[in-house]
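Reopening: FAS1 domain-containing protein still failing for me.
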Amino acid sequence: MTKQAVIFSLSVLLVFLFHCITTKAQPAAAPAKPADAPTQPASPPAPPAKAPAQPAEIPVQTGPTDVTKILKKAGGYSVFIRLLKSTGVAGQLFGQLNDSSIGFTIFAPTDSAFSNLKAGTLNSLSDLQKTQLIQFHILNTVVTLTNFQTLSNPVPTEAGDVSNNEFPLNITTAGNQVNISTGLVNTTVGGTVYSDDQLAIYQVSKVLLPLDIFAPKPKVAAAPVSSKPKTNEDAAESPSGASKVDEAAAVRVCRHEMLAFIGVAAVAFFVMKGT
Ligand SMILES: *[C@@H]1O[C@H](CO)[C@@H](O)[C@H](O)[C@H]1NC(C)=O
Ligand SMILES: *[C@@H]1O[C@H](CO)[C@@H](O)[C@H](O)[C@H]1NC(C)=O
Ligand SMILES: *[C@@H]1O[C@H](CO)[C@@H](O)[C@H](O)[C@H]1NC(C)=O
Ligand SMILES: *[C@@H]1O[C@H](CO)[C@@H](O)[C@H](O)[C@H]1NC(C)=O
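Support: Ran it again with your exact input. Result attached.
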């Protein structure tokens, strides 16, 4: 009888100690979750930004020059068309070509150009990089075949600010031949797919891979990072300080409850012993 009572009260204590230990451990993990939550609402607003770009494509079919229609008619550019659409660049071109003072030159890679890329090349890109890749194939002026020789290198593209050394594209000519170099890819401009006073589309047999995406320059910002860990430590310290306070409170609560339980167990023990 007494043995049972002792075992009973000991097991109650053990269960309770476990309870204390687990509740003590929880406060440390809990503060991490609230930090994640605020970051999530930030990403959902992104998709709505894309949506407005596309409706522009649907309403007016008779107005501005439609690049994707031209490419579709020419045939053999289905991957480029898909990317023009999915990145929203097609919609932007369509809207801007409505303004007769704006012109573009597009280097359209063929489907076989895309299929010659290393497997997974496109899938490895973020949405922004896909957009930049497509914009890298577009110059914001109309360049006729005979005018390429007038360009000075690096030639600006829609992808980035060449004056900042971003997305450089070099074009060299010799006779009728127009060569394009990205630093990663050399190719020669193929046939003319389309040409009017606002738009020129040329075939290229290679996808123009920009250095900025496929061979990023080593970040010069590496040095400042070494001074930053201090702020990381500061940030790391305050949460642990907070959890220490939580722990102390939890321990105090546990002690109170434990005393009560020991009392109850002792009473139970003596009651059992008495009978
Ligand atoms: C093109 O411009 C005209 C007149 O400025 C405007 O009415 C029309 O909605 C525009 N179309 C597109 C597709 O932007
Ligand atoms: C263009 O590229 C071809 C083949 O790569 C090369 O033979 C030719 O010399 C290049 N021309 C110019 C002007 O760079
Ligand atoms: C492009 O041309 C510029 C100026 O001529 C030159 O400095 C640069 O190295 C060239 N880049 C490539 C990738 O050919
Ligand atoms: C591109 O052509 C230049 C010379 O015009 C050459 O130095 C370079 O190695 C070529 N790059 C590739 C990837 O073929």
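The mean pLDDT is 72. If you still see a failure, please send the error message rather than a screenshot.
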